[in-house]
Each structure stands twice: as structure tokens, then as C-alpha cells.
Specification:
Elements lengths: L2 H13 L2 H8 L3 H15 L4 E4 L2 E4 L1 H26 L6 E7 L1 H6 L5 H7 L3 E7 L13 E6 L7 E7 L2 E6 H7 L10 E4 L7 H9 L5 E5 L2 H9 L5 E4 H4 L5 E3 L10 E6 L7 H15 L2 H5 L19
Parallel strand pairs: 3-4, 3-5, 8-9
Antiparallel strand pairs: 1-2, 5-12, 6-12, 7-10, 7-11
């Protein structure tokens, strides 16, 4: 038995299905099936029950998976510590952040990063899902949160405030000063349902007035800018758009902050340290934009309905 076999068992135990396990491993489903069949044959034991609803571990499979999980954790600790001692400014670096932050802020600095660190290969994952830095889902994560994980290290680069917006054309057609509930709105669903903008919308706008929902902040921005309706957005996304106006009384400071974080075992790696410093310093320069105080609007916009934290 080798570690590569155990990786397949772990992936299948977590995914409970061939196709999901294959995606996690970066192979095709037939490869997972053949590897499992060969391992069970060589061991002379059934590791999974094949059910219509998916794959379920047998008692033998549970025991093997528990041992494989312990081995995986030890291997990850060693991997992180070896990477943490790497003094070379070269190799791969995994960055996890949101689509909105990449499109509206970080993209401006990618070329500069490439020029400064030409031998660092940056792999960027754009998602709102949580990532596990202990398992090296990413080396650096840049996230807006009110409660960063205690075991991670890094810095906050400012609060992320929010407001509701509409296009100038929409307000010209539908009137300014109209009650918010009288407008048509664009909302959120999926992974963004629990974000502060989605919760504010559900708390303050009648459901029948929310005509569209997206699982992407950038998509909400795009349709609001085209006059489809109003939408709650982070200030750093909407304030710089020339065709949008803040709706009076909706700006709100939140306890959500933008964090640049890594695992403690990785912070002394030359390339991870360089990435933390680079993205942290560039984002710090955007503090006013994140906080919604750098727009064409007055610094202290009227207080309105509070946006809940994530």
C-alpha cells in the first residue's frame, strides 16, 4: 500500500461519490474506480459499500480512513514547515480571495507583483467558500470577515462598509426620495445569502420587490449599473462606478474588516512573506475606498439601516 492509494480512499470518503472525488483529485471518475478496485483486491477487504446514493465506508474502510487522515495531517505539517523555511523567492503561491476583490481592487496590482517577483507563480482561487490553510487549500487568503480564524496570522487593512445603490438613469426614471420598498431590487442567493448585503436586502425590502438574485457581487453591480434595479453593495465595489448613486440613508459602517492572512508555519517562507507584504501594503492604500469615504459623496454620509456583519 502506498500513500497515493490512501489519497484516493480519503477523497472518496469525503466526497461519497466517484465524480466528486475525481474532481478533488484532478483525475477522471474511472481512475478513482480502478484505483479503489485494485486496492480492495490487494487487501482482500471491502472498503466501501456501493449504494444508489453514493459510497459509504465499511468498518474496515473507517479504520483505514482514520489512519490515512492521521498520516495526511502529519504530511501537511511537514510540508508547511519545509515551505516555511524556504528562503527562495520562487515557486508557486496559492492565493484565495473573492471575485469582487480581485476584479475591483487586486487586478490593478497583478502586473506589478509579476514584475517584482517573476519567479513566483501565482495560483488564484476566486470563491466565497471557506478555505483550510492547514490543509494548504491556499497559502494566503484575503477575506472580508468580522471573525478571522484565531490560528492564522496576518493583518487587517481596513473595514469594509456598504450601502445601497442605483444607477442615475434608474433614479431619473423612478424618482429620488422614493421609499426604498417602492423600488425594484437585485438581491443575492447561494453562497452569498448570509453576507451582510443579502441580509440587509431581506430585512428591509419586501421579497416581491426583489426581482433578480445572483450569487456574484460583480453580477449584481453589472445589472444595477444598467438600470435593472437597486442593489446593496460593498462601497469599494460601487463607489468608483461613475453611473451609480448611493441611496440616501443606507450607508453604514460595519465590523467587517478585510484581512490578509496565512498559516503560522508559512509566514517565514520568503515568497509567502513577500506576498503578505505586497498585498497587505497595496490594500492598505485602499482603506478609504474599502470604508466608503473616498467617493464623490461627503465623508460622513447619513446613517441608515444597519448592515449586519457576516
Amino acid at each position: 500500500m502506498n500513500w497515493d492509494d490512501l489519497r484516493f480512499v480519503l477523497a472518496l470518503s469525503r466526497a461519497r461519490g466517484l465524480h466528486s472525488a475525481a474532481r478533488a483529485l484532478g483525475v477522471n471518475a474511472s481512475s478513482v474506480y480502478r484505483r479503489l478496485e485494485a486496492l480492495e483486491t490487494s487487501m482482500g477487504v471491502r472498503l466501501f459499500e456501493r449504494l444508489r446514493t453514493g459510497y459509504r465506508l465499511t468498518d474496515a474502510g473507517e479504520e483505514l480512513t482514520a489512519a490515512a487522515s492521521r498520516m495526511e495531517l502529519e504530511a501537511l505539517v511537514v510540508e508547511r514547515r519545509v515551505l516555511g523555511a524556504d528562503v527562495r523567492l520562487q515557486g508557486s503561491m496559492r492565493l484565495a480571495t473573492s471575485e469582487a476583490l480581485m476584479i475591483h481592487v487586486l487586478a490593478d496590482h497583478i502586473q506589478e507583483f509579476r514584475a517584482l517577483y517573476p519567479d513566483v507563480h501565482l495560483d488564484v482561487a476566486l470563491s466565497n467558500r471557506q478555505v483550510d490553510l492547514a490543509r494548504r487549500d491556499a497559502d494566503i487568503v484575503i477575506r472580508a470577515t468580522s471573525a478571522p480564524s484565531d490560528h492564522l496570522v496576518g493583518r487587517s487593512v481596513g473595514h469594509v462598509n456598504a450601502a445601497a445603490y442605483a444607477s442615475t438613469a434608474y433614479l431619473d426614471a423612478n424618482g429620488r426620495g422614493t421609499p426604498l420598498a417602492a423600488y425594484e431590487w437585485v438581491g443575492y442567493h447561494g453562497a452569498l445569502e448570509q453576507h451582510r448585503q443579502a441580509r440587509w436586502t431581506s430585512d428591509n425590502i419586501p421579497d416581491e420587490q426583489v426581482k433578480l438574485r445572483f450569487d456574484s457581487i460583480s453580477a449584481v453591480l453589472a445589472v444595477v449599473a444598467r438600470g435593472v434595479g437597486c442593489g446593496a453593495l460593498p462601497c469599494f465595489v460601487a463607489d468608483s462606478h461613475p453611473g451609480l448613486e448611493r441611496l440616501p440613508g443606507t450607508y453604514q459602517e460595519t465590523d467587517v474588516q478585510m484581512w490578509v492572512l496565512t498559516h503560522p508555519d508559512l509566514r517565514n517562507s520568503a515568497r509567502i512573506s513577500a506576498g503578505l507584504q505586497f498585498f497587505g501594503s497595496r490594500l492598505s492604500a485602499y482603506r478609504a475606498k474599502l470604508e466608503g469615504t473616498s467617493s464623490r459623496l461627503p465623508k460622513k454620509a447619513p446613517r441608515g439601516r444597519k448592515f449586519p456583519s457576516t
